[in-house]
Amino acid sequence: MFKRLLLFCSFFVVLTGCSTNPATGDKQFTAFMSPAQEQQIGAQEHKKVVEEYGLYDDDRLQKYVSEVGHKVTANTERPDISYQFFLLDSPVVNAFALPGGYIYLTRGVMALAGSEAEIAAVLGHEAGHVTARHSAERYSQSMATNIGASILSAAIDSSGVTQALGVGSNLYLKSYSRSQENQADTLGIRYLARAGYDTGAMTDFLVNLQADSSLESKIEGSSPNVRNTFFSTHPATAERVNKTIAENQGRQGGAVGHEAYLKVIDGMIYGDSAAQGFVRKEKFVHPELGFMFSVPEDYRLYNSPAQVVAKGTGQSKGGMIIFDMAENEERVSSMRFLRDIWLKGQEVDRAEEINIGGMKAATASLDGNVNGQAVKLQLVAVRWSDDKIARFQIILPPNASGKQINDLKTATYSFRKMGERDYKVYGPYKIRIVTAGPSDNLGSMAKMMAVEDYKTERFKVLNGLRANEGVTPGQMYKIIAKF
Predict the structure, then answer these.
(1) Tens digits of per-residue pLDDT, 313-325?
(2) N or C end of the chain: smaller count of CB under 10 Å?
């Protein structure tokens, strides 16, 4: 009984561990993460973030992001924070912050933003999450719930009611609540004003984000986006956009830095880099690892850090190709890898050794199940190097025709090492800045875009052009160019 009473008393003490936040003026429950712990956790998680995403290899742009970040955080309510800013080598439009003042944005954000003020708005928003101690608040509330469940477990003499919650970067990449997002917007606008930037940049960037998200949904159709985006971690609503508009009423002037910003990002890589591999029509090309392969014309390719997926459309709907690279730690043959490691000794009726692109490979057919539906699977293991196996998992569409099966087989056999000419033909896209001439219009500017589809729509979103807005002669614009 004494033990239970002690637990309840301890829980009461925890619940009273509230403090007043200097930035928001709100009472917060942050008992489980002190400011000193925030710094320690941020330093630990920073290493993981850099390892997962990688920093963009451009000292000039890294320095630029850091300079803008320090401008916008020079007068926050938390002078105890030593803010640090990093540009991640990712095409996904996203930004986030770790406790302790570690703030990140991606190349995707840099490409979408139209001015230095918009970049300052994104960094100011993330600084708002830090000064408002949203991560500390979220973590402490989770721990309190955890402890409450443990106390309940002790009170009813039942073990296993809950499991301890660990600290990890996923905690900080989870979606913020609407009130936390609104609070970070308000603080971001405050920091923009203090730094002398145009506070309307916050609204401009949110509107651009909505346009970009709508276009991506249109391009991808019903296909899910496997990556985290700004909207997945920072919920945006029309209410939130209208709120930032309202908060900017009465504010005049402020630095924008449109043309100067465009000059800064001229030449920056757009989309996937050589280190990540990229999609070019029906081809996937990975210059850093030195391989490429093609998929049938009616398949759409999606690149992610873990794997490449090709999904069938039209008559090929239901078909899928999944490609990845696997470690071959035991350095076994492709057949042994297929049978003993990949399939873990599972019996297969049809397995054979083949040659793909001059490399030894093995393939096997078997019956499988995807989302409750019986399908035919074709597995292919290619011995890329002594310690790497290139893997293809092919899901045949229901009632696949002979041509469809042959097209998928051809896709597998297209896997090959890149040659000298391939490196000259295929490279990452880059942002280029051009000035519209007297006779230029949306059509002529869109033709400069190196992308294969939605040229006009992509040009408008990239440059923050609204529905009925056209091109102004003499003005600078972003285009997507070949390397």
Answers:
(1) 888 888 999 999 9
(2) N
Range of the domain at 35: 2-265
Tokens of 60: 């000039």
Are 341 and 476 within one domain?
Answer: no
| Number of domains making up the chain | 3
DSSP letter for each residue of 289-347? TTEEEE--TTEEEEE-SS-EEEEE-GGGTT-EEEEEEEE-TT---HHHIIIIIISTT--
Query: Would you put residue 78 in left (φ > 0), alpha (ψ -120 to 50) or beta?
Result: beta
* Eight-class DSSP state of 16: T
pTM value > 0.85? no
**CATH code where residue 377 lies:** 3.40.1000.10
Give the dihedral sign, CA 295/297/299/302: positive
We report the CATH number of the domain holding residue 457 as: 3.10.350
> Considering only CA atoms, which of 213, 207, 8, 218 is closest in space to residue 92?
213
HSE-up of residue 340 (Cα within 13 Å, Cβ side): 10
Whether 310 contacts 320, CB under 8 Å:
yes
Q: Is 424 domain-assigned? A: no
Quick check: 383 and 359 in contact, CB under 8 A? yes
Does residue 119 share a domain with residue 11? yes
3-state secondary structure at position 419: coil
Q: Which helix (H) or strand (E) holds 374?
A: strand 373-385
